[in-house]
Design goal:
Blueprint (H helix, E strand, L loop, with lengths): L3 E4 L2 E8 L6 E4 L10 H8 L4 E4 L15 H14 L5 E6 L1 H12 L4 E7 L10 H19 L4 H9 L9 H4 L2 H13 L2 H9 L5 H5 L7 E6 L12 H7 L3 E6 L6 H4 L1 H15 L11 H11 L8
Parallel strand pairs: 3-4, 3-5, 5-6, 6-7, 7-8
Antiparallel strand pairs: 1-2, 2-4
Length: 305
């Protein structure tokens, strides 16, 4: 039975492997689940405590009444608190990367470093191409869930989808990837999808206010293959995160965790070795002020996507 954390009545599913002084917390992207990190768990947990969890409305976590961006961050902090983790290295893909970056800005004492995989950090609108993908996802998930479709059937549908490379997902990606994505689509809360489609990008206000003092490495996808972190966003990131480095992996799409597993894992291992051998966490002068500003603004409408 999968372990869970109860946060304000919401069940958050998680699992962990390994031991180590500074844990690694993996945060998946939207519309998938913690199983997106399946191939990464074993190599990372050989020398580190590695934790992954399902975001609210995703995977085996409970469905919620709302999906505000700040609630995803609060859920993440609840995972740390429940597991008695004072600070961790956060690794996030897409929406998970946005969550990790915002947490690093708001509460750097809890963040040893942030490794971000093609996150939508400074977007003010959903590009037309992504909007079309999102609408297709809404239509597909609504149909699959209404029909109580089998995992194998959904995986076959996913395998027929075209990729940015011009081939099909079945030609490019492993059966294991298609199966876990199919399971994630069948458990995804449609309310999260609808909110994502009808509202602004995740945490747009918070992300405009990003100020990150911790080390950051951001892997960005090839703009020609569909990135959520376009080159124009590199300068704003460096302004807001002086210790950030951006590595753009040419020839990879937004699904670079699958497109370039070895490259992503190598970059992550280098980041962990370079920046988190000795964590310099501790109180810093801006924490109280920034925390107070966040508390004042957290009730403002700020939907997740």
């Amino acid at each position: 039975m999968v372990p869970t954390i109860n946060h304000r009545g919401l069940s958050l599913a998680y699992d962990e492997e390994g031991t180590g002084e500074i844990p690694v917390v993996l945060i998946h992207g939207g519309a998938v689940a913690r199983t997106a990190w399946d191939e990464y768990m074993t190599p990372l947990s050989r020398d580190r405590r590695t934790i992954r969890f399902d975001l609210r409305g995703h995977g085996e976590s409970g469905r919620a009444n709302s999906y505000r961006f700040d609630e995803f961050i609060e859920d993440t902090v609840a995972v740390l608190d429940t597991l008695a983790i004072p600070a961790a290295v956060f690794v996030g893909h897409s929406l998970g990367g946005s969550i990790a970056a915002s947490l690093a800005s708001r509460d750097p004492d809890r963040v040893a470093g942030a490794f971000l995989v093609d996150p939508p950090l400074f977007s003010t609108e959903v590009p037309a191409a992504r909007a079309g993908v999102l609408q297709e996802l809404i239509d597909d998930c609504s149909r699959w869930q209404a029909e109580s479709a089998a995992v194998d059937s959904v995986a076959q549908d996913l395998a027929s989808k075209r990729t940015p490379f011009g081939d099909t997902a079945g030609q490019r990606y492993s059966p294991a990837h298609l199966q876990r994505t199919a399971r994630a689509r069948l458990t995804l809360d449609p309310a999260w999808l609808q909110q994502t489609a009808s509202q602004s990008p995740p945490g747009s206000r918070q992300k405009r206010d990003l100020r990150i003092i911790r080390p950051v490495r951001l892997l960005a996808a090839d703009p020609a293959l569909g990135t959520l972190f376009p080159p124009v966003d590199e300068a704003p990131l460096r302004e807001r995160a002086p210790r950030a480095t951006v590595v753009r992996l040419e020839g990879t799409s937004h699904l670079m965790m699958e497109d370039a597993f070895d490259q992503v894992l190598d970059e992550l291992r280098r980041f962990l070795a370079e920046y988190t051998v000795a964590h310099d966490a501790g109180p810093h002068p801006r924490r109280a002020r920034e925390g107070a500003e966040w508390k004042r603004g957290k009730d403002a409408s700020d939907p997740a996507s």
